[in-house]
Specification:
4 strands, alpha+beta, 3 helices, Alpha-Beta Plaits, globular, 46% helix
Length: 105
């Protein structure tokens, strides 16, 4: 399965409202898990089986809880048993389709 999630404390420190230190704690948990992952400006994506992925999401959320009394968690999952390598595979197929449409234009 693939999970895209965002976790942060409610409210940020300082005048700019930044939560980067809390998010960094969550991303460290994900990266240390050893599961395939990537982080963008808005979400972290992780790939593995149900129990592995949700264990990492839980631990990442717990890491953020140390930064405040309330946490926001946004999660989207693509549950597709029997498929691996989809973190890159989905993007590769998308890019191939875009390139293919350029060739026919």
């Amino acid at each position: 399965m693939l999970v895209a999630f965002s976790v942060s404390p409610m409210g940020g420190e300082g005048s700019d409202g930044s939560v980067h230190e809390a998010v960094a704690a969550a991303v460290r948990v994900v990266r240390e898990s050893g599961l395939p992952n990537r982080t963008s400006s808005m979400f972290t994506e992780i790939e593995g089986d149900w129990d592995e992925v949700f264990d990492v999401v839980k631990r990442a959320t717990e890491a953020v809880q140390t930064f405040g009394p309330r946490v926001s968690l946004v999660l989207k999952a693509d549950v597709r048993p029997g498929h691996t390598g989809e973190l890159d595979g989905k993007v590769d197929r998308l890019e191939a389709a875009i390139e293919s449409s350029r060739d026919t234009a």
